[in-house]
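Input/output pair, single chain:
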Amino acid sequence: MDQTVETVEVLARRRAARVGSMIGGGETGGASSVADNVDKRERDWKAEIESRLMVERFEEAEVDLDHERGICWFWFRFHKRPSFTRALLRDVGRLQHALVSTANAYDAPVLPLKYVVWASRTPGVWNLGGDLKLFAELIRTQDRDGLTEYAYKVTQEGFANWISMNLPIITVAMVQGDALGGGFEAALSSNLIVAEKSARFGLPETLFSLFPGMGAFSFLARRTTPATAQRMIMSGRIYTGEELFDLGVVDILAEDGQAEAAFHDYVAKNVRRHAASRAIIKSRQRFHPLTLEEMRDIADLWVDTAMSLTDRDLRKMERLVAAQDRRREKDEASE
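Output:
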């Protein structure tokens, strides 16, 4: 299992033990000594995460730290097609590992980080989903191992995002523009979804005889109902941010162009309620537990289905890739 997921219980136990020892008088010097110790650990963590992120070679992403508000911003910076390429998946994994490993090393009782936000620098696009060009190539060559490796990587990172990397943080998808297919799945894996009214969400996989198998049903069924999740997946319909807010899928609805402002407003209003907000999220997840095993089992079904696609299905997939490329070229020409 991935190192990010392996720390699920370890970090929680170590942090609880340290806080308990401090409160119970395990640290000498009274309350001021405890406060000084906590402050030092927070400063050390901030310095370490800054250092770690400076040396990381992000390929299709930009990472910013807002220490004042306790926010880590992860911005998609697509080089070509705005989708989850292998390079972007590596970037997501790098950030998750850096956050978990530094929290483990410094074991700050109260982590200075409160939010991790996934956002996009590409106007009109949050993320268009899986790497369809890669999928078509792997299916045509019947490379089951390659397709499974990709699917497991996505589910592994999506699950880590769902459980907040088991850190006392809230993961946020700030959606401006289109979040389609695997892009919609990725947004759903976050604890909080902020979306602008005209943002578009959809799962078009059924158009080429496939289904979204890397979290869509698991996440949607827990945010709505299994029946609603199935209808949304089978319809292939595109929903606006406003429609999904009415369905309870989107948590914070923003006017167009105001998603970042709406999120900052949420952060400001919840400065003293962060722990309560986290507890509510954890309660919801306890009520509807999700396991990495469930996600991988569904990913296996997705691989089985993908490997049986016909040449006609693959041509439809490749036409969608061509349409994405034309859109990207048009957007680049207008910049």
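The mean pLDDT is 89. The domain at 3-260+272-334 is CATH 3.90.226.10 (2-enoyl-CoA Hydratase; Chain A, domain 1).
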